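Case study 2.
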Amino acid sequence: MSDIETRSVVCAGGLPAFIAIPAGAGPHPVIVLLHERYGLVEHTRDLARRHAREGFVCVAADYFFKHPDQAALHRGDVGYDMTDPESVEYMNAAIAALETERRADLGRIAVMGVCQTGRHPIVLAAQRKISAALVWYGAAQEREWQVNARYPVGLDDLIAKADCPVLGMFGETDHIISVDSVRKLRGSLEKHGKSFHVEIFGAAPHGWLNDTMPGRYRREAAEAAWATQRAFLEWVFDEKRDRSFIRQSYKASIAKTYDFSKNVRYE
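Prediction:
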């Protein structure tokens, strides 16, 4: 699909959002897209447009809009520690912004989180019914399993409560998330009887989907992972899918000489 419609809106609570809509009357399934630590930058809008070209209504909100220095945030010089309850409020507001959009099928919603926001699709799935949680190199650091003011419910408990298939996309040379951490996430999903596909892409560093960061971007891995996600969503949204069965798969490309301590940050 090449013809899409885009617009900027303000959701409940003053939350800014970018919406991309496919051509055709629909109704189309929905992607709720969360951004990396840099806020709602052009890369995230590009992903929203890409989703729309593939037949999804995509809403990408600015989840860190309350940070007082947006320029520094976009550069990565500062961060915004969004809490789980805050994320749920914002995701629900983003979804509500589509309630009057007749081309959006709110009965078919997948939520995609990237990097810092990787856990939040699972957070939402633990509180309301969604069709899929799409996790891109997030939700697997050791801190995700802890309970504190930012994360009032541990990741294992969130996974237990989530009632949807989970996709996890990770990179072997990620300097933040180790292979063992990915395996821990996979183990929790398996233990709690969730449908999932978890994959580790060889020689892919943290942020390898982001084509605006040449040091991180890995075209081959990015395209392969995007195709995997597209196939996963086709399965999720298949009306003929037998929901009385769970489907679990794990795929990994890991160097024989793998050493997490040698993984480095790329820009």
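Residues 4-262 form a domain with the Rossmann fold fold (CATH 3.40.50.1820).
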